[in-house]
C-alpha cells in the first residue's frame, strides 16, 4: 500500500493494484461562496496524478468535492460518492457515478469499498466515511473525526484528524484530539495518519484568526506510549509517496491467540 497526501483532505491511495483519488482539491482556490468569512488558496497548483482508476468523494462540500479540480479530471473515471457529492459530479458531466449511502458497498476488482456514517453536515445530512479492503489489508477514512459505532474491530490503516478544530460559540468543526485515540482503542490499527491539516495551503476570512486547534501528533504519540499501544503515527509531508508496511492478517491473528 502506498499513500500520498496532497494537502487538506486530498489523498492518492494505491491499494490492491488500484489508484484511488480521494476528496481531491488540487487546483485553484477553495470557496464556499462566502469568501469574506472563510476561503483557502494553494501556494501553487498540484499536478493531476495520472492513471486514476477511481475517484472517491466523502462529502459534497467544496473541500471534498472541489468543482475546479473535478473539472480538470477525466469525466469517464468512475466515481464513488456520498449522495450529496454524487450530485456535484453528475452536474459536471461524469458518466459513471455510484452514490453510496452508509451500509452500502461497491467492488472494483479486488477492492471492496463500504460506506459508513461519517460527518454530520447541518441538521439533515450525514456524509460518508469509507472502509476500503483489498482482501489483504483495510484502510478507513473519515475527515472530520465522527466514527460509526458499527466499524469492524480490526482495521489496518486509519486516515482521520488527530486534533480538534474549534470555533468559539460553535464548538468543534473537526474533532480528533480525543476521538482519534478512542478509535485506535476500538479498531487497533497498525498505522494512523492525520488528515484535514493545512499543509501548504493558506486560509483567510473572518473566522480564521479565531479557530482554535487542540491536540497534536506528538500528544497522540505520547498517549499511545503511555498506554503501551503499538499503533504507528505517521505525519506525512504533502506530495511524498509513503510505503505503508503492514503485517499480514494471518500474522495478526496468530499473535492474538
Order of helices and strands: EEEEEEHEHEEEEEEEEHEEEHEEH
Q: Report the CATH C-level class.
A: Alpha Beta
The CATH architecture term is 4-Layer Sandwich
Instruction: Show unreliable segments.
Output: 253-257
What's the rounded overall pLDDT mean? 92
Percent in helix: 10-25%
Helix count, DSSP H or I runs of 4 or more residues: 5
Q: Structural class of the secondary structure composition?
A: alpha/beta
Mind describing the biggest β-sheet? Answer: 7 strands, mixed
Shape: globular
How many separate domains?
1
Distance between the termini: 26 Å
Strand order of the largest sheet: 8-7-6-3-2-1-20
**CATH superfamily assignment?**
Ribonuclease Z/Hydroxyacylglutathione hydrolase-like
Question: And the CATH topology?
Answer: Metallo-beta-lactamase, Chain A
User: What fraction strand?
Assistant: 25-35%
**Integer-rounded radius of gyration:** 18 Å
| Strand count | 20
